[in-house]
Each structure stands twice: as structure tokens, then as C-alpha cells.
């Protein structure tokens, strides 16, 4: 039993460690041959079409070749049975690595990735020295060196970059975001500020915003806290007043009994006003006695005084409207009622 476990640990896949090492040595020779072959293709393509330079003395990168160069490389690719992009990249990579700077034992892929390092001296020094703790260059290490996405993300930032890359499609991003936000552990790690930003972003659409706001205000604790904000409360009151105005306007324009109802409008407004007075006086009569022997804090007294000022301003406005028929409020009164 112990022997079987030991053999399992020593195996790599279906082969033993020793056989795996033999295969690696064999394939490294194959990769070296492929690297030499790719450089040969690049060198011959360079011979046929030397690299051009654009403004600033920089070489033209793959995908930006002149039409005549592209035409020649297409012909060469077809004649040797390779894809145009393969020949184009091989030519460019060969141009970045003089023969005496090419590293034996380093794949052509790594040469191609590190070829993106702009400074020539830095490029040659980099490929000659593998990353710290490594004995040789790998494709992922080369990509890390030039800031490109890796195939096997290791650090949190690399994993984030990989997710962003996979979610470039808007439909994919929408599904992924929805799935992530359904995970309680994920949602719990998002800060309150970020959650607010997410909600605001999701509710840019007026229909979505209306549905969300309606659902949230049906929660008593949310509605109470929301109405504690003077601006929010003012907006809600304004919306209610506007809704009533629109409903009245619609009634007057469409109802056949509107002319008769207009004759009793003033009576209805009078009754609404008196009812509001009675409601306020009754509420105050229930609440104020509860303050007996209670010392309010400074903040509480400030809030009460502010609201008393609003009530006084509103009463002055009502008296003016009743005496003169003018219901327009000045800017100062409007600011007070908004809590500014």
C-alpha cells in the first residue's frame, strides 16, 4: 500500500518522474529546432522586405505594414504554406533580435513577447537574465515583463485583468456582474460607497429607477430614513403636488362635470386647509405634552427650531394667500421649505 502511494506521488500524469524528465529534454530540443526555424523564416522575410521606419525612427509594428510590403509577405506566406500573420510576426521578431543576441534555450514565443521592450539595451539584458527565482523564461513570465495578460493568472490583479478580458463583451459582462452580485460573500465585501454607485449606475434608466424606488419605499425602515432627508422629503412632497396638479388638469380637460365642480373648488380648498390646521394642532397637542421634564440635546433643539421656522414661514404664506389671493412664494420662503 505504501509503495503504491509512493509511485503515485512520483508520477507526472501517466508517466514516472524519470520518464517525464526524458520527455522534457526531448521536447526542449524540438522547441529549439522550432525556434531556429521561426527565426530562419523571419530572417528570410527580412531579406525580401527589410523593415521600414515611420516618423521618429521607430520600426513599423506588425499589422501596420505598407500595402506593398504586405502584398510581398502575403505571397511569401502562400508560397511556403504558412499564415500571413505567422510570417509577419516572424519577420518583425527577427528584426528585434540580431543573431548574436538570440538566447539558446529560450523559445521563439518568448523572444517575440520580449521583443516589445522598446529600449534595445534593456531588451537584450532582460532576455539574458530569467526572472528572480526562475531558471528559464516562460511565456507567462515574458508577458508579465511587458505588462500583457498571462495565461495562468497568479496574483489578484492578474485574475482581475483576466476577468475583465473575458467580460469585454457587454452581454457577458452583464451576466457575470449579475451572478457576482447574487453571491452574499461578494456583496458583503463591497463598500457602502461602491454599492451606492452600482445602484445609481443600474438605475440610470427612468423605468428601472421608478421600480427600484417604489420597491424600496415600501420598506418602512427605508421610507422612514429616506424621509428624514429634507431634500428627499421636499422632492416627494413636490412630486405629490405635481401629481395632484396633473390629475386636476386632466379632470378639467376631460370630465363633462368639470364646469360644475369648479364652482365648489374654493369650498374644497377651504376644507383641505382647515383640515390641515386641525391635523397639525391635534398632532402638536399629542406630542408636546410628552416633552414635560425632558431636556432636549442641542442638536435636537436646533432641529425643532428649524422646523418651527418652517411652520411660521408657511403660516405667513397662508395668511398672505388668504388675504390677497396670491399663492406665489418668494425665493427665501422656498429655500426655507427646502431646508436650505
What does this structure look like?
Helix content is 70%, strand content 0%. The chain has 340 residues and is an all-alpha fold. The chain has 3 domains: 2-163, no CATH class; 165-221, no CATH class; 296-340. Helix 5 packs parallel to helix 7. The termini are far apart. 8% of the residues are buried. Residues 1-7 have low confidence and may be disordered.
Q: Which class do the helix and strand fractions yield?
A: mainly alpha
* Total beta-strand segments: 0
Gap between N and C termini: 82 Å
Strand content: under 5%
- What order do the SSEs take from the amino end to the carboxyl end, as H and E? HHHHHHHHHHHHHHHHHH
Q: How much is the radius of gyration in Å?
A: 39 Å
Largest sheet: none
Helix content: over 70%
Mean pLDDT: 81
Helix run count: 18
Short characterization:
The protein is built from 18 helices and no strands. It has helices at 2-10, 17-48, 67-80, 84-96, 108-114, 120-127, 139-146, 156-166, 170-181, 184-189, 192-202, 206-217, 220-227, 230-254, 258-262, 265-287, 298-324, 331-338.
Amino acid at each position: 500500500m505504501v509503495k503504491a502511494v509512493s509511485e503515485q506521488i512520483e508520477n507526472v500524469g501517466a508517466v514516472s518522474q524519470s520518464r517525464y524528465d526524458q520527455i522534457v529534454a526531448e521536447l526542449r530540443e524540438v522547441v529549439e529546432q522550432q525556434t531556429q526555424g521561426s527565426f530562419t523564416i523571419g530572417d528570410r522575410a527580412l531579406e525580401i522586405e527589410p523593415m521600414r521606419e515611420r516618423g521618429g525612427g521607430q520600426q513599423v509594428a506588425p499589422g501596420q505594414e505598407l500595402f506593398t510590403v504586405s502584398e510581398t509577405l502575403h505571397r511569401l506566406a502562400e508560397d511556403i504554406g504558412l499564415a500571413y500573420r505567422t510570417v509577419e510576426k516572424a519577420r518583425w521578431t527577427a528584426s528585434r533580435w540580431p543573431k548574436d543576441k538570440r538566447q539558446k534555450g529560450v523559445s521563439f514565443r518568448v523572444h517575440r513577447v520580449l521583443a516589445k521592450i522598446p529600449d534595445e539595451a534593456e531588451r537584450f539584458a532582460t532576455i539574458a537574465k530569467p526572472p528572480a527565482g526562475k531558471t528559464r523564461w516562460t511565456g507567462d513570465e515574458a508577458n508579465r515583463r511587458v505588462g500583457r495578460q498571462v495565461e495562468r493568472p497568479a496574483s489578484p490583479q492578474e485574475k482581475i485583468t483576466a476577468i475583465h478580458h473575458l467580460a469585454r463583451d457587454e452581454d457577458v459582462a452583464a451576466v457575470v456582474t449579475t451572478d457576482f452580485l447574487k453571491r452574499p460573500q461578494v456583496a458583503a465585501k463591497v463598500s457602502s460607497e461602491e454599492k451606492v454607485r452600482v445602484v445609481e449606475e443600474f438605475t440610470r434608466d427612468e423605468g428601472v429607477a421608478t421600480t427600484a424606488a417604489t420597491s424600496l419605499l415600501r420598506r418602512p425602515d427605508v421610507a422612514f430614513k429616506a424621509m428624514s432627508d429634507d431634500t428627499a422629503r421636499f422632492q416627494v412632497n413636490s412630486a405629490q403636488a405635481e401629481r395632484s396638479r396633473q390629475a386636476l388638469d386632466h379632470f378639467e380637460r376631460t370630465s363633462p362635470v368639470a364646469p360644475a365642480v369648479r364652482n365648489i373648488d374654493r369650498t374644497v380648498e377651504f376644507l383641505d386647509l382647515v383640515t390641515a390646521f386641525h391635523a397639525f394642532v391635534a398632532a402638536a397637542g399629542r406630542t408636546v405634552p410628552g416633552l414635560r421634564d425632558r431636556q432636549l440635546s442641542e442638536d435636537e433643539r436646533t432641529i425643532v427650531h428649524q422646523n418651527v421656522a418652517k411652520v411660521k414661514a408657511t403660516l405667513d404664506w397662508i395668511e398672505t394667500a388668504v388675504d390677497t389671493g396670491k399663492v406665489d412664494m418668494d425665493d427665501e420662503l422656498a429655500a426655507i421649505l427646502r431646508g436650505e
